[in-house]
Design brief:
The protein is an all-beta fold. It contains no helices and eleven strands. The chain has strands at residues 3-7, 10-12, 18-25, 34-39, 46-51, 57-59, 67-72, 77-82, 91-97, 100-101, 105-109. It is globular and about 40 Å long. The N and C termini lie far apart (40 Å).
């Protein structure tokens, strides 16, 4: 059974940083695409970043230059380093693998 567990969210001031983690279990994920999505209150869930099996990355325009996605294949962990956070980054962040989603972790950017 595939399980994805996010962690690392919290409350941070504008301009601050957080690192999200997604611990994956149930199989080896090193050969697959994985991604981060987010959902703000009252809005649709949206793509944030992804990384494929060749470590090629992709980002939505609003986070380019501020967020970095990475993976530790030995530990089966997906990361999202978020710098220069803005209030509009406030959302629940989810990791995704194929049709599986984690439970999400709340990120709140506020002074």
């Amino acid at each position: 059974q595939v399980q994805l567990v996010e962690s690392g969210g919290g409350l941070v001031q504008p301009g601050g940083s957080l690192r999200l983690s997604c611990a994956a279990s149930g199989r080896s994920f090193s050969s697959y695409w994985m991604g981060w999505f987010r959902q703000a209150p009252g809005k649709e869930r949206e793509f944030v970043a992804s990384i494929n099996q060749f470590s090629s990355t992709s980002y939505t325009n609003s986070v380019k230059g501020r967020f970095t996605i990475s993976r530790d294949n030995a530990k089966n962990i997906l990361y999202l380093q978020m710098n220069s956070l803005k209030p509009e980054d406030t959302a629940v962040y989810y990791c995704k693998f194929q049709n599986y989603w984690g439970q999400g972790t709340q990120v709140t950017v506020s002074s």
